[in-house]
């Protein structure tokens, strides 16, 4: 019975804080088997906390209202963070530590996703969608509706976490006051789970750009240094292939031009997967290698350069119409390894967009038709990016054209001699295991850069 009245007290706290759904059930008290507060517009009834006990079940459930006006003033994360509870990374049994960690993560998430700006944009979109004349342009209406849905979904998921945090803390405090160890343990476990979810959301909040969720093309080009740099470009290409595999992305080679002696002059990868562009964009820039040259008989130290550019792949609805008369399509024999067919059949395709001079080519497939389709996809992405770059410069530094690839332009240095280190010059993040980095261990560099960009 004591636990049942704890539920009633939790109900009172939730009412005081304007909760829309709360239900307490106890099979051992038939006449008071259900206490509920509901709102007709709420359709989601999400179990928040349901510990198993010898006396029955105690359920406290709460869902977030779809009315965005109720989200503006609410800030449970700020309230709990202000209590000054210490965050202990190692203690699993300290519910205060879990609560403080979740509150800190939520504050960081809201800052990175620009919570107030998103709420303002949501209101603007609601006004736009209320205009009946909007549907005279169905494509525009669908675009606004989709944007509204995406923003609302992201905001609501964060708001739900805030509500969950408050409910878990309320129950933990009540259990502590009543000296009910079992309920306190269950509440602590729920907060620990929420802490893990908050950490994952914290990372996802780093990728809040309009194109971050897209797949992408990643281009590698050898710079100053001749054969040395061509070999280094091949190493960089391998690094990104391994990194893509580690992250679960699908990777295919669109175009690869081999060097005369070793390595590659340039190559283009297609990386497909959720947030492929969001992660890959951090790697755009010049990469510098210092090592003892394997091509120098005197074993001297050489410096090589390779550049990386990243271009998002947009959905089919945003494609630019390309006139056939604006294209020059050339076919030629594929270069490099591949056997007699690759060397004798003109399967490789190069497409030039005459008005802009933008070029795309593909020689990855034995079929000229499939190579043409892939080259057109690359050209489409480059033209789309060019058009967006003219409208806004927000992402220009991520997908800028490959310029001068030499001293003074590098974003990262890979040193294999006389010491071993990889250092990002933008964030000062460094590691002493270059072999691991070259085998695709790039997440430390990526998250460090994303964090710096988000916090600026």
Main attributes?
single chain; 456 residues; alpha+beta; Methane Monooxygenase Hydroxylase, Chain G, domain 1; Alpha-Beta Plaits; 2 domains; 8-stranded mixed sheet; 12 helices; 42% helix; PCRF; Pep_chain_release_fac_I; protein biosynthesis; Peptide chain release factor domain-containing protein
How do the strands and helices of this protein lay out in sequence?
Blueprint: H1 2-16, E1 22-24, E2 35-37, E3 47-49, E4 52-53, E5 56-57, E6 60-61, H2 76-81, H3 95-112, H4 115-130, H5 138-177, H6 181-204, E7 215-222, H7 227-246, E8 250-258, E9 264-272, H8 276-280, E10 285-292, E11 301-313, E12 327-332, H9 339-344, E13 348-353, E14 358-362, H10 368-391, E15 410-415, E16 421-424, E17 430-431, H11 434-438, H12 443-455
Parallel strand pairs: 10-15
Antiparallel strand pairs: 1-2, 3-6, 4-5, 7-9, 7-11, 8-9, 10-11, 12-13, 13-14, 15-16, 16-17
Helix pairs in contact: 1-5, 3-5, 3-6, 4-5, 5-6
How large is the share of residues in beta strands? 15-25%
The major beta sheet can be summarized as: 8 strands, mixed
What CATH architecture of the largest domain would you give? 2-Layer Sandwich
The termini sit apart by 53 Å
CATH class of the largest domain: Alpha Beta
The total strand number stands at 17
Number of helices: 12
Stretches with pLDDT under 50, minimum 5 residues? 14-60, 392-401
Based on secondary structure, the structural category is alpha+beta
Q: What name is given to the CATH topology of the largest domain? A: Alpha-Beta Plaits
């Amino acid at each position: 019975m004591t636990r049942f009245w704890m539920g009633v007290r939790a109900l009172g706290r939730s009412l005081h804080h304007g909760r829309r759904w709360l239900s307490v059930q106890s099979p051992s008290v038939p006449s008071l088997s259900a206490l509920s507060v509901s709102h007709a517009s709420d359709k989601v009834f999400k179990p928040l906390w349901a510990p198993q006990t010898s006396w029955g079940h105690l359920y406290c459930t709460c869902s977030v209202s779809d009315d965005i006006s109720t989200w503006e003033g609410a800030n449970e994360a700020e309230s709990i963070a202000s209590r000054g509870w210490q965050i202990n990374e190692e203690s699993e049994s300290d519910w205060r530590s879990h609560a403080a960690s979740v509150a800190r993560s939520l504050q960081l998430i809201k800052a990175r996703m620009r919570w107030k700006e998103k709420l303002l944009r949501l209101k603007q979109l609601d006004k736009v969608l209320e205009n009946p004349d909007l549907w005279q342009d169905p494509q525009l209406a669908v675009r606004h509706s989709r944007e509204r849905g995406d923003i609302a979904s992201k905001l609501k998921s964060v708001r739900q976490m805030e509500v969950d945090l408050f409910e878990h803390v309320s129950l933990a405090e009540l259990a502590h006051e009543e000296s009910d160890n079992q309920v306190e343990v269950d509440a602590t476990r729920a907060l620990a789970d929420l802490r893990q979810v908050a950490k994952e959301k914290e990372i996802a909040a780093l990728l809040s750009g309009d194109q971050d969720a897209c797949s992408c093309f990643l281009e590698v080009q050898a710079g100053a240094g001749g054969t040395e740099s061509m070999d280094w470009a091949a190493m960089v290409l391998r690094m990104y292939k391994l990194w893509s595999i580690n992250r679960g992305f699908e990777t295919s080679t669109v175009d690869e031009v081999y060097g005369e002696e070793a390595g590659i002059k340039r190559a283009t990868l297609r990386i497909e997967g959720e947030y492929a562009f969001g992660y890959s964009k951090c790697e755009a820039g010049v990469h510098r290698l210092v090592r003892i040259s394997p091509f120098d008989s005197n074993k001297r130290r050489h410096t090589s350069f390779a550049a990386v550019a990243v271009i998002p792949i947009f959905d089919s609805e945003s494609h630019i119409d390309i006139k056939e008369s604006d294209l020059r399509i050339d076919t030629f024999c594929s270069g490099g390894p591949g056997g007699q067919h690759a060397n004798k059949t003109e399967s490789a395709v190069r497409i030039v967009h005459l008005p802009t001079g933008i070029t795309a080519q593909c020689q990855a497939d034995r079929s000229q038709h499939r190579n043409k389709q892939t080259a057109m996809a690359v050209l489409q992405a480059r033209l789309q990016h060019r058009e967006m770059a003219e409208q806004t410069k927000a992402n220009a530094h991520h997908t800028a054209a490959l310029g001068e690839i030499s001293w003074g332009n590098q974003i990262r240095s890979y040193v294999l001699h006389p010491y071993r280190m990889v250092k990002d010059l933008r964030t000062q993040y460094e590691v002493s295991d270059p072999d691991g980095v070259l085998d695709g261990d790039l997440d430390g560099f990526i998250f460090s850069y994303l964090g710096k960009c988000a916090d600026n």
